[in-house]
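Much of what follows relies on a compact textual record of a protein's fold. With that in mind, consider the following protein and its fold in token form.
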Amino acid sequence: MRSFCHQTGPSPWSNWITNHGTKARDKFKIFPSQLVLKEGNNVMFCCVAPVGVNITSITLRDIPYPLLNIGDGVKAILVSNLAIPTNLIKILPVTCTDSAGKTSSVGKFVSFPPQKPRNLSCTTSDMINIRCSWDPGRKRDQYDRNNQTQTLHIENTDQAPIPCQSSSCIFPAVPQQQEYNIRVEVKDQLGEEMATYSFNISNRVSPVLEWDRVIPEVTEVSLSWTVLGNLTQNNFLCQVSVDAETIRELTLRSENGLCKVRLEGLHPNMGYSAKARCSVNGRLWGKWTWPVLFTTYPLVTLDLWRRIDYRSDSDIRRVTLLWKPHVFGRATTVKIQAYTVKWSQESQTLTELMDSRQSQAVISIGPKKCNFTIQAVLNKGSSIPAHITILPEDSSEIPPLKKSLNKTSTGGFSLWWDERTSVTCGYTVEWCILGGSASCALQWIKVPKGNNTLFLPPGHFKSGCRYSFNIYGCTEHGDKLLEIQTGYTQELRSVKYPSLIKLVKSTHASVTLEWHYDEEDVAQPAFITGYLVTVQKVQSDTAPVLFNVSVGDPRQKSLTIEGLQQHQEYVCSVSALTKVGPGLPASITIRTKTNYFSNLTKILTPILLLLGCIALLWPQRIMLKNVLKKIFAYPAGMNIKTPEFESFLHEIDQKLQSHKVEECIGCDIEVMHIKPLWHESTILRTPEHTNTMCSPAFQPSLPPSCVPLQTGYCPQSTVMLCERPIPQQMMCIANKSYLSMITEP
């Protein structure tokens, strides 16, 4: 070998020295001999055996590798890319075995070389001590045997090197020295690294804070802390953070090292944590303090409303004040001790203390304007007083606008109203169930100014119940009723049936019905839109409906039904109509009157026609009589003899004796002999019986056993005989198909 010094010429070469290697005497020698090996290297492990001993295997972590014959008694194995063991024991055992089975082992460790310190910086909190820190890089295992040393050198001073920890170093400041040049060295068995840094100590001040006081209130907190180190600066730029909110940056002036700050805009009755840090120049910030916990005080507000009842007999008004306490936050339980109610009217002011369990107060006032103030009394915390003004009575006030609400698809109520320029502090919507058995439980919601819509979900309302919503506008003088809106979340068909249905007027073809119904009844499960009237005959239950009439005006409670039949019974039903269909019907049975005029017309018409004919024919009665005589006289040439006629009658009588009454048929008798008129007619008598009684069917003026014979020809006339074959029996023969006709002279 030879040497070089300061770039001068090299020295002469030394003499050659022969290295005969190491020799093992009584046990194996294993190389490399160092304890720590570098990660990632290719390492050759060698075993040197005593003289005469043959090495048969070399293992690493009990894993055999191929043997390499290095020389006489020397064997080796080659391990590539050496890795750090992942198990708990980081040691790598290397074992050599001879032919006799004897073994020799040695443990090796694998590690990595030191890394260059990164992000080296130095700060001071009191101008007395300086603290430097850096990033050491890769973290070492606790069982790593490659121990490192860190040393800090102040190169522009003559101070001795300063031993450090793995990532930081603290050393005293050099009096009266502002500029520092430092070097940090890291060494271990596998090498060394270093990093340098220069700084001015005045620019590297990092204040350390210590909490002094935390004073919470309802929506704010007062914080104070002390800046340690007896720094000469009085002005600091500090940052305060409350529960990861936006960091607030403040410029503070310390008084004897004490800084104070007041933070606003917090929520009442809520837990917070605060931390702070400060800087001298705004470039280098100190560390954040430990978080300090605090809870703001409770806040109680009152949602105040009123209901006014007027008395008709006096000017006294009965005002019911209603309120709902609202407690902000849930960090602690808030207990209200009492309520203070104060009201003033004209020059009189009164105050009353109410129990904490009450939520309303009833106060009687006069007709003038009255102001009310209610405030909750708390043991700890604050309560914002609620105010409301009762306007004076005004008979000239414009009545509110009334509307009916339509059903929404969601089932709730969707309210809207016209915005008023006179409204300065929002709206109030109040409602209650109308027609309930219990007293109305008044509910209300405040709507901010600028909003004229409100949706109320269906969960707070019932189907079939009518709700009335009063919309008030808030002004600087008080609340004024603007609109009244009424509706249902869902209308039902089960409305009441009409009462007192009665028949007002009836004719032979029409009836007039009248009924009573309270269409404004708030207990109804739906709005009444009209009425349905049906009419059917009283024949059977399945009789078809003859009339189905709808009345579109719910205030119209009468109807005339026409087109009915006379003297007929009908069932008339009346039911109230809603948007979802008709309700329960009320029925009445009526009977139409008889049309006597129509019947009289049917009777009088033929009579009048007959009288008319008689009147027309009366002047011609003599001529008509002569014509009739000519028509009904016997024809000329007919000659009927009396004996022949009696023989003919006897034959007919014998034939009729053998027939039953129902077997007799009509017969025609033609009298051929023309007789004189009635007073000249011949009387035929029975020779044997001249004094027998005649049938009752004959005229009583004739003799009992006589038969009148017409002298004139009369077709289809009835011939009556009266004959007594024996004294005790009388026989009468008559053709019942004819009527007797007697022609008067």
About this structure: Confidence is low (pLDDT under 50) at residues 672-745. The CA atoms of residues 675 and 710 lie 7 Å apart.
